[in-house]
Amino acid sequence: MSEHWSKLVEWLPANDDPNRPRMTLSTAEPDARTLLLSEFDEHGFYFHTDSRSRKVEQLAEDPRVALTLLWPDFTRQLVVLGVAELAPFDEQARAYRARSPYLKQLAWLNDAENAQLPAEERRARWASFTDDPESLQPPETWVGFLVRPHRLTFWEGDPNAASRRTEFTLIDGDWHKGYLPG
Ligand SMILES: Cc1cc2nc3c(=O)[nH]c(=O)nc-3n(C[C@H](O)[C@H](O)[C@H](O)COP(=O)(O)O)c2cc1C
C-alpha cells in the first residue's frame, strides 16, 4: 500500500461511517462552501450536489479545486488539490442510497423556487412530500463529482512540538513526499 494512501485510510473515517467529514470545496473562480465528503477511494474524493448549483457552473468553467478537511475537530487538516470530474453513475446511485432520509428528501426539494417561500410554506411543502425515503430514487438534478488529487497536504498539530505538514505530490505518475513547516 502506498504511503499517501495508508495515511488517508488512517486519517479519514471509513466510507460506511455515517458521521461524514465536512470539507470546504474551493473553486477556481474563486468561491468556497462546506460539503460532506461522501466517500473516497484510490481514485480520489467524492462529493454530491445539485446540478443547478453555482459550484457546478463554476466546475464546468474550470474543474480545478481545493478541498480542505478538518478531521477530527481541529487536530488534523488535510488539503487536497485536484481536478473534479463527473463521478461514475453507479457511484452516484450508491452515494444517494447511503444518504440519510432527510438528505434524500432534501435532494428533491432544495430548489430555487422553494428558497423564495416563507418558512411555513417551506415546512408545508416538506411535510406534504409523501414518497418513502427508503425507496426514493435520486432526482435528475442529483450529481456526483470525483476529485482526482495531485497534491495531498497533511497538517498535524503536536502540543509538545511545532506543527508540521507532510506533503505528497504527484509528478509524472509518481507520488513524492516532503515535509513543510506547519
Ligand atoms: C455542514 C454542511 C454540509 C453540507 N453538505 C453539502 C453537500 O454535501 N452537498 C451540497 O450540495 N451542499 C452541501 N451543503 C450546502 C453548501 O455549503 C452550499 O450552501 C450549497 O451546496 C450551495 O453552494 P453553491 O451555491 O456554491 O453551489 C452543506 C452545508 C453545510 C453547512
TrEMBL record:
- What SUPFAM superfamilies does the record point to? FMN-binding split barrel (SSF50475)
Q: Which UniProt keywords apply?
A: Flavoprotein, FMN, Oxidoreductase
Q: Which InterPro entries match?
A: Pyridox_Oxase (IPR000659), Pyridox_Oxase_N (IPR011576), Pyridoxamine_oxidase_dimer_C (IPR019576), Split_barrel_FMN-bd (IPR012349)
Please list the residue ranges annotated as the Pyridoxine 5'-phosphate oxidase dimerisation C-terminal domain.
Answer: 142-180
Pfam families assigned to the protein according to its UniProt record, in alphabetical order: PNP_phzG_C, PNPOx_N
- Pyridoxamine 5'-phosphate oxidase N-terminal domain residues: 20-115
Q: Which Gene3D superfamilies match?
A: Electron Transport, Fmn-binding Protein, Chain A (2.30.110.10)
A single GO molecular-function term is: pyridoxamine phosphate oxidase activity
Cofactor list: FMN
The EC number(s) attached to this protein equal 1.4.3.5
Highest taxon above the source species: Bacteria
In terms of PANTHER family, this protein maps to: PYRIDOXINE-5'-PHOSPHATE OXIDASE, PYRIDOXINE-5-PHOSPHATE OXIDASE
- Which family does this protein fall into? Belongs to the pyridoxamine 5'-phosphate oxidase family.
UniProt-recorded name of the protein: Pyridoxamine 5'-phosphate oxidase
Name its species.
Answer: Antiquaquibacter oligotrophicus
Provide the organism lineage as a comma list. Answer: Bacteria, Bacillati, Actinomycetota, Actinomycetes, Micrococcales
